[in-house]
Design a protein that fits this description.
Elements (H helix, E strand, L loop, with lengths): L2 H21 L5 E2 L1 H9 L4 H8 L4 H18 L14 H4 L3 E2 L1 H10 L8 H10 L4 H8 L4 H11 L7 E4 L3 E10 L3 H8 L12 E5 L10 E6 L17 E10 L3 E7 L8 E11 L2 E11 L9 H5 L1 H21 L3
Parallel strand pairs: 1-2
Antiparallel strand pairs: 3-4, 4-10, 5-6, 6-7, 7-8, 8-9, 9-10
Protein name: SRPBCC family protein
Pfam family, one: Polyketide_cyc2
InterPro entries: Clp_N_dom_sf, Clp_R_N, Polyketide_cyclase/dehydratase, START-like_dom_sf
Length: about 325
Amino acid sequence: MSKLTVATATMYDLSLAAAEEASRLGEQSGDIDHLLLALTISEQVAGQVLRSLGVDLEHTRAAVEQQHAEQLASLGVRAAAPGPGRITFHERGDFEWNDRALDVLRRAAKGRKRGDAAAVLRELIAEGSGLVEAILQRLETTPQQVRELLDQAERYPSPPSGTFDGRSLSGSGAAHVTAPVATVWALVSDPARMPEWDLGFGRVSDLPGEVVAGSVWTAHAIETAPDGKPQRVRPDRRRARVTLVELEPMVAIEWTTTWPDAMTSNTRRTRIELEPAAGGTHLRIRQAWERTGSRRGIPPLRWVMRPLYTFAIWLQISQLGASIGRAFR
């Protein structure tokens, strides 16, 4: 992946996770502590390094809260802060980084730096306010330990991939979920729970009596957003047919999605593989859009646009991983 693609993808992932964490406290501005929280659930090398040091989401949330309480107490402020609530960012959508967080993100992509999560983490632990260092100390680690482990881990990067040919567009990526495999499996393998993590669907019907390979059910597009605003949905996209292709308990699930009222629409194929990881579950996600036999060949313009298509499918994979992770945060 190019530097621009890596930096853009990283900015998107970290901004989304940070915005969700900020929204738990009713905040709409992101600071460097929100950036650290976002990095703890990143599936890039930086997130893996942090979790291996015990800097996971749950413990970092507690350390951030303790650090802020101590700072307020030093100023003579002892009023109890409001407790965290649920994530509401996807309902409101209002978020912006403050200046010092933006400065960290900009420096991570400056010059020869790649702008990936590891570069962001390096700039974050070098940030001069001392806030992140103090939080890490509460988590019994130091910026130096983080740097040393990053140096080792970055020798083996594994960026997401994407392919584009005349018949399909596909891509793969990874996500970290802060819940054990069994809990995550219970979510993604239950057709009735699909609306909990696929934000494109508001309800399901025609549920199978037994969930096995070959099972089919109907998913209905969400027509009202969480904030109450009506969603524009094409009539031929209001219902989808979901067919389970493979089911290997606790290991992998794969299904296809078609739109029976849009006869020439492409088929979406999704596969999720699960494995235990420090602090939760590692997801490997693959998605492909497969051209139907009734559609014409790929026109030359689409070949020219393939970098944009590849980025678009990466974005879909990233959103899917984030939505599954959000269900447990």
